[in-house]
Structures are given as C-alpha cells and as structure tokens.
C-alpha cells in the first residue's frame, strides 16, 4: 500500500479524530434523507425492498417513515423493521454515546497507511470494549487530512441472533455539502436454513435545514 511516511501514534490519530468528530457533530444541522433498503436471498429467490424517509434533528435523533415496500411481509418485518428500530434506539443521546467510534467504546491498533479513493488514510483495527450488539469489530479507515471515518469493514460485536452464524458488512461515507454522511452499507449474513442473504442500504437525497438566525449581539463597545 502507498505510504504517507511515518505514521503517528494511535493516541495522536484518535486525539485529532475525536476532536474533529466533536466539531462535526456540533455543526451538523437537522436534515432529511431518502434510503433504499433491499435484501436478496438467492437460495429461495427471495427479494424485498423498502424506501424510507429519515428525519434527523440537530442532535442526531432519527425518525423513520416508510414510503413504499415490496416483497414478503415477513422479511420486511423481521429485517427492515428491526434495522430501523435498532437505529432509532442507537440515535438517542444515550445510544449515540454508547456506539460512538471512540476510545471509550473501542481499543484501537494501527494496521497500515493506505490510499482510498485517491486520498490517504490510516487503517486501524477496532476491538469493542463490551459485548454491546450495536458495536462492531473490524477495520476503520480514517482520512489522514480531514480526520473523518470514510470506511468501516467489520462484523457485529456479537451475532444478532441464534439463527445467524456469520455477518460481515462494509459501510462507506461521503461528503455532502460539507457534511460527512453514510453513502452505502452492504452486509452478507449466513442464516441457518436460508443460507446466505445480502442486505444493502443506499443513502441519498440529503436535504439540510437552514441554520437558525443568530441572536443580535450587544453591538460594538462605545469608544472612550
């Protein structure tokens, strides 16, 4: 992989990333977006999809509204609805704190420097500090100039169900009008009886709320 010279220490990387992440979260406005969910199981030729509107407030709390759906109702209920309920839970203030990519929730080790989409990144191995099912274990790509996570390649900290023997996912982020937001998620799961299923989430249609007008200040001080 291309090198960007001597890599900084894990603490240096995470100090800069966590500071930048806090600044981004403070600057994030409320927004709406449209997501396309799909699941495919080739063994039983099952396909299902759902289009969802997401309304997120400035604190990151999310509300989901299904716009359309197709495919077996059981799949939509057991897969899509469970995913939406889980993300709504994780978007609460307590959920965000418990799932944030930071040293409170993960231990990190350096893997390599790499180029992703023409930009240099630090690749870190993330190991969850608890068995919280909303955490993951795997690799994180942090942009070496913007200090933002641009890719995650991992698996849940623990299997979500007795019926699921293995799950892996890739999550990608992209810059939208100066904000870093999800672009694509694909997960592949080995499910007992059903075999391998692939779930994709395509994120788009982002629209941001206008910033609130600033309160008028006291004006310039009167010169002596």
Which labels suit this protein?
224 residues; 10-stranded antiparallel sheet; globular
Report on this model:
The structure is a single chain. This protein is α+β, with helices and mostly antiparallel strands and about 220 residues long. It has a single domain, classed as outer membrane lipoprotein receptor (LolB), chain A. Helices cover about 20% and strands about 50% of the residues. It has three helices and ten strands. The chain has a ten-stranded antiparallel β-sheet, with helices on one face. Strand 9 and strand 10 form a beta hairpin. The longest helix is centred in the first third of the chain and has 18 residues. The protein is globular, with a radius of gyration of 20 Å. The termini are far apart.
Offer a concise description of the structure:
19% of the residues lie in helices and 48% in strands. With 224 residues, it is α+β, with helices and mostly antiparallel strands.
CATH architecture: Clam
- Number of DSSP-assigned strands: 10
Would you tell me the structural class of the helices and strands?
alpha+beta
Strands of the widest sheet, in order across it, are 3-2-1-10-9-8-7-6-5-4
CATH level 1 name: Mainly Beta
Instruction: Give me the strand/helix succession.
Output: HEEEHHEEEEEEE
Number of domains: 1
**Helix share bin:** 10-25%
Number of alpha- plus pi-helical segments: 3
Radius of gyration: 20 Å
User: What is the subunit organization of this protein?
Assistant: single chain
Distance, first to last CA: 63 Å
